[in-house]
Amino acid sequence: xxxxxxxxxxxxxxxxxxxxxxxxxxxxxxxxxxxxxxxxxxxxxxxxxxxxxxxxxxxxxxxxxxxxxxxxxxxxxxxxxxxxxxxxxxxxxxxx
Length: 96
Prior knowledge:
With about 100 residues, this protein is an alpha+beta fold. It is built from four helices and two strands. It has one domain (about 20-90). The chain starts with a helix and ends with a strand.
């Protein structure tokens, strides 16, 4: 029994420094701003949040995807935070 406790203790000390708490609030705030821009149809403003590297690599393709979703399913009407990890999902409006 003592051996098991010792092994668990050693493993805990070995792996504990590799575990870090990450505050999700800043990411949720950025997601809020991003989806708010999309909800208002301000795709250019939303795209200003991406890095130049991302935009250079896949920016035009991603813009087509967002525009296509908007054209086919209506604009994003809302977003919701789901799960304990704070994942954002877009909630589209129904087409007329």
